[in-house]
Amino acid sequence: MLKACGNICKIDKLGRIVVPVNVRRMFDLAENSPLELFVEDDKIVLKKYLPQCVFCGSSDDLTEYKDNHICQNCLSELKS
Ligand SMILES: [Zn+2]
Description:
This protein is α+β, with helices and mostly antiparallel strands. The chain is built from 2 helices and 4 strands. The strands form 2 sheets. A two-stranded antiparallel ribbon has the order 1-2. The protein has a two-stranded antiparallel sheet with strand order 3-4. A hairpin with a 2-residue loop joins strand 1 (about 35-40) and strand 2 (about 45-50). The longest helix has 8 residues, at about 70-80. The radius of gyration is 17 Å and the shape is elongated. The termini are far apart. The model has no long low-confidence stretch (mean pLDDT about 90). Zinc ion binds near residues 56, 73 and 74.
Protein backbone atom coordinates (compact mmCIF):
# COMPACT_ATOMS: atom_id res chain seq x y z
CA MET A 1 0.00 0.00 0.00
CA LEU A 2 1.28 3.48 -0.81
CA LYS A 3 1.96 5.74 2.13
CA ALA A 4 2.55 9.49 1.86
CA CYS A 5 5.76 10.50 3.58
CA GLY A 6 5.03 14.21 3.72
CA ASN A 7 7.31 15.27 0.90
CA ILE A 8 6.47 17.13 -2.28
CA CYS A 9 9.24 17.07 -4.91
CA LYS A 10 9.51 19.29 -7.94
CA ILE A 11 11.10 18.18 -11.18
CA ASP A 12 13.94 20.48 -12.23
CA LYS A 13 14.81 21.66 -15.77
CA LEU A 14 16.72 18.44 -16.45
CA GLY A 15 13.91 16.17 -15.25
CA ARG A 16 15.58 15.35 -11.93
CA ILE A 17 13.97 15.08 -8.53
CA VAL A 18 15.60 15.05 -5.11
CA VAL A 19 14.82 12.10 -2.86
CA PRO A 20 14.55 13.77 0.57
CA VAL A 21 17.16 12.82 3.15
CA ASN A 22 14.60 11.25 5.52
CA VAL A 23 13.45 8.91 2.74
CA ARG A 24 17.06 8.11 1.75
CA ARG A 25 17.83 7.21 5.36
CA MET A 26 14.68 5.10 5.63
CA PHE A 27 15.82 2.98 2.67
CA ASP A 28 19.55 3.18 3.30
CA LEU A 29 20.22 4.92 -0.03
CA ALA A 30 23.64 6.44 -0.61
CA GLU A 31 24.93 8.47 -3.53
CA ASN A 32 24.71 6.42 -6.76
CA SER A 33 22.39 3.80 -5.24
CA PRO A 34 20.41 2.30 -8.11
CA LEU A 35 16.64 2.80 -8.08
CA GLU A 36 14.16 0.99 -10.27
CA LEU A 37 11.23 2.96 -11.66
CA PHE A 38 7.73 1.52 -12.00
CA VAL A 39 4.50 3.02 -13.26
CA GLU A 40 0.99 1.90 -12.36
CA ASP A 41 -2.10 3.82 -13.43
CA ASP A 42 -1.44 7.36 -12.18
CA LYS A 43 1.53 6.44 -9.98
CA ILE A 44 5.30 6.54 -10.42
CA VAL A 45 7.01 4.25 -7.91
CA LEU A 46 10.73 4.21 -7.12
CA LYS A 47 12.13 1.00 -5.67
CA LYS A 48 15.59 0.28 -4.33
CA TYR A 49 17.13 -1.86 -7.02
CA LEU A 50 18.23 -5.30 -5.86
CA PRO A 51 19.76 -7.42 -8.59
CA GLN A 52 18.18 -10.87 -8.90
CA CYS A 53 19.07 -14.10 -10.64
CA VAL A 54 17.49 -14.11 -14.11
CA PHE A 55 16.49 -17.75 -13.68
CA CYS A 56 15.20 -18.17 -10.11
CA GLY A 57 14.88 -14.62 -8.71
CA SER A 58 17.32 -15.19 -5.84
CA SER A 59 19.46 -12.22 -4.74
CA ASP A 60 22.16 -14.29 -3.00
CA ASP A 61 25.62 -14.98 -4.37
CA LEU A 62 25.14 -13.33 -7.76
CA THR A 63 27.56 -13.28 -10.65
CA GLU A 64 27.11 -10.70 -13.40
CA TYR A 65 27.28 -11.82 -17.00
CA LYS A 66 26.44 -9.54 -19.93
CA ASP A 67 24.18 -7.26 -17.82
CA ASN A 68 22.36 -10.23 -16.27
CA HIS A 69 22.80 -11.73 -12.82
CA ILE A 70 23.02 -15.44 -12.17
CA CYS A 71 23.14 -17.08 -8.73
CA GLN A 72 25.67 -19.74 -7.84
CA ASN A 73 23.02 -22.50 -7.77
CA CYS A 74 21.79 -21.80 -11.28
CA LEU A 75 25.37 -21.30 -12.47
CA SER A 76 26.40 -24.73 -11.25
CA GLU A 77 23.26 -26.26 -12.85
CA LEU A 78 24.23 -24.63 -16.13
CA LYS A 79 27.74 -26.01 -15.91
CA SER A 80 26.59 -29.61 -15.28
ZN1 LIG B 1 19.27 -18.66 -9.70
